[in-house]
Design a protein that fits this description.
13 helices, 6 strands, two-stranded antiparallel sheet, single chain, about 350 residues
């Protein structure tokens, strides 16, 4: 725990430029995909909806939104100690995630320009949005005398290859869970303005509408590719990505509960609300939803939380890496077992639940 009377120190690659957080299973990922396979997709079955979404992107409703006002023009030294550390981590993780989206969408727009013009323009306009988000967050970091070298991130991060349908699942959920996270924080702080310790949260209402539109785009693309939703493999993969996204968010945020408490939120209640809302939203496109009301769902996630706390203690101990590996192994196995048991909880049939016809 950082002394609450002192400012935390951060590793820097040069003065004022924060060293990127170490890559782990829980850090934001950078993605690449099979661009040729995506270019070959036939979108004609849902082209009208995609063109309507493209018109929304062109309208650029938030083109004047990401402008800092006078509320930022002050010292933020009163945010100190552990709260400052967690706040900087929040800004860094958010900026990295937005920049990851920018890189993927920009590359897709470039690669698809001559083969799928509608898709290419949608991706280019989404990359515009993500660049604004990342820039706004990076500017917020400067209020804490830090910044991220986004060019360095581009070159230093490892990239995860996903086939196009997996990109659709992952990015759809990332955008929709981003919407519910931002709007939930915004509504809480709107009702409790005394907890608004930094002005960036005032931007979240309009900001999250970008996330929502991006999610709607991936919804439309998946509907144009029925095989990504309508066979037994799709049901298995949708369960996998739902669980992966929910578990990653839960484990990350519980580790940083002090940040949410500083905003006056109960972290676990916040997690449950965001997971429930995202699960319901995903059920309007995915064939299944997770049974997040099952009594074992959060119980098993809490076991993983406890395991991760023990893993952190071991990692911070003075024992050798070999000894640490064997000390960590039981907790890794336990986490894997918890995830398997969570995956095997019978899912909810989304089509029946929402009364949808596909």
């Amino acid at each position: 725990m950082v002394d609450s009377l002192q400012k935390p120190s951060f590793e820097e690659i040069r003065p004022g430029v924060k060293a990127p957080a170490k890559e782990t299973l829980l850090t934001p990922r950078f993605y690449t995909t099979d661009f040729d396979e995506m270019a070959r997709m036939d979108l004609s079955v849902n082209e009208d909806e995609l063109r309507a979404i493209l018109e929304e992107f062109r309208a650029d409703y938030n083109r004047h939104h990401f402008v800092r006002d006078t509320q930022f023009e002050q010292s933020w030294d009163h945010i100190d100690g552990e709260t400052r550390k967690l706040f900087v981590e929040f800004l860094e993780r958010s900026c990295t995630a937005e920049f990851s989206g920018f890189l993927l969408y920009k590359e897709l727009g470039r690669r698809l320009k001559d083969k799928s013009p509608v898709l290419a323009e949608c991706f280019n306009l989404m990359s515009r949005d993500e660049a604004r988000h990342a820039g706004f967050l990076n500017k917020a970091l400067s209020d804490f005398n830090l910044s991220l070298d986004l060019g360095f991130l581009t070159k230093s991060r490892s990239y995860t290859f996903f086939k196009p349908k997996f990109i659709f699942y992952a990015t759809y959920l990332s955008e929709k869970i981003g919407y519910w996270r931002y709007i939930t924080i915004f509504r809480h702080l709107e009702a409790n303005p005394s907890n608004q310790i930094y002005p960036i949260f005032r931007w979240f209402e309009n900001w999250c509408q970008d996330e929502n539109r991006h999610g709607d785009f991936f919804d439309a693309v998946m509907r144009a590719q029925p095989q990504t939703l309508n066979d037994w493999r799709a049901r298995l993969w949708c369960r996998f990505f739902l669980l992966s996204v929910f578990a990653t968010m839960y484990l990350n945020d519980i580790q940083r509960t002090g940040f949410y408490e500083a905003l006056g939120l109960n972290t676990r209640e916040f997690e449950r609300e965001v997971i429930t809302k995202t699960n319901e939203t995903a059920g309007r496109v995915f064939p299944v939803m997770l049974n997040v009301d099952h009594p074992e769902f959060y119980e098993r996630l809490e076991v993983c939380v406890q395991n991760n706390e023990k893993l952190t203690k071991i990692a911070n101990s003075n024992t050798s890496k070999i000894v640490q590996f064997f000390q960590k192994l039981p907790y890794y196995i336990s986490n894997g077992w918890q995830m398997l048991k969570l995956y095997l909880i019978k899912p909810v049939d989304a089509v029946a639940s929402h009364g949808l016809v596909r």
